Amino acid sequence: MNTLGDRLTYLREKKGWTKTHVAKKLGIKTMSTYANWEYNLRQPDNEMLLKIADLYEVSVDYLLTGRVDVKVNGKKVLSKEERDVAKRMDELRDDLSSATGLLFNGEPMSEEAKESLLEAMEFGIRLAKKNNKKFINKKYRDEEE
Questions:
Q1: Pairing relation of β-strands 75-77 and 70-72?
Q2: Tell me, what's the pLDDT at 81?
Q3: I need a surface site. Which of 10, 20, 63, 107 has the fewest CB within 10 A?
Q4: pTM for this structure?
């Protein structure tokens, strides 16, 4: 994904939306205006870039450059989804370390086993969020049409 158009196409398809649907959500009268941005024939103005970033819940920096790591005062700023996953993983990590008598096959769980379990759980959480987004987006898209 090297261009703004590539990123717009990726984000739209990830949501399961049509170009017409996105154009309506952005308040654009014709779908062809939005399509021209995806085809890299034209560029949205700054005001529209902000609307697009809000719609897709990404930064303008990501739209223009593809960078996903946004830093403020030298600290990485996470997207809402990443913060949610990180918070849930912290909760699970706390649960695993505070659980007394946590056993695996009758033996105390090693640190390596705990980390493996946490990695698998994180994968499951991310997959569930992704699948839930598809369901919710399809549900609302069907209701709007």
A1: antiparallel
A2: 74
A3: 107
A4: 0.50
